[in-house]
Amino acid sequence: MLQLYIGNKNYSSWSMRPWVLLRQAGIPFEEVPVRFDSFDASSQFKRQLQGVSPTGKVPVLVDGDLTVWDTLAIAEYV
Ligand SMILES: N[C@@H](CCC(=O)N[C@@H](CS)C(=O)NCC(=O)O)C(=O)O
User: Fold this and answer.
1) For the segment 50-75, what is each residue's pLDDT rounded down to a tens digit?
2) Which residues contact 4 (CB under 8 A, 6 or more apart)?
3) Nearest C-alpha to atom 14 of ligand 1 is from which residue?
């Protein structure tokens, strides 16, 4: 199953966009919330994304071995 790592939908419109797209298209996915504490290298936010995305940003789509970490790229991929 696709996994979509996203931040708070109120504060991260970047996160909201692929979430809406997947829902609207009826594509099943698991939503993985990443809490915004801070963007410092030692933050929980960055630690949760470590090993998931090289950019350390949300949204991130994980499809098995493939990781897509940019909103427009996610849109094109799905
Ligand atoms: N170009 C990226 C931008 C994503 C982005 O900037 N996300 C913000 C949250 S809305 C983020 O994760 N920022 C963390 C940081 O700047 O370290 C995309 O389109 O997905």
Assistant:
1) 999 999 999 999 999 999 999 999 99
2) 18, 19, 22, 29, 30, 31, 32, 59, 60, 61, 62, 74
3) 57
Tens-digit pLDDT profile for residues 10-40: 788 898 999 999 999 999 999 999 999 999 9
How many H helices and E strands in the chain? 3, 4
Mutate to test the pocket of ligand 1, among 48, 58, 68, 72 (most ligand atoms within 8 A of CB): 58
Enumerate residues lining ligand 1, CB below 6 A: 7, 12, 14, 39, 56-59, 70-71
Nearest residue by C-alpha to atom 12 in ligand 1: 57
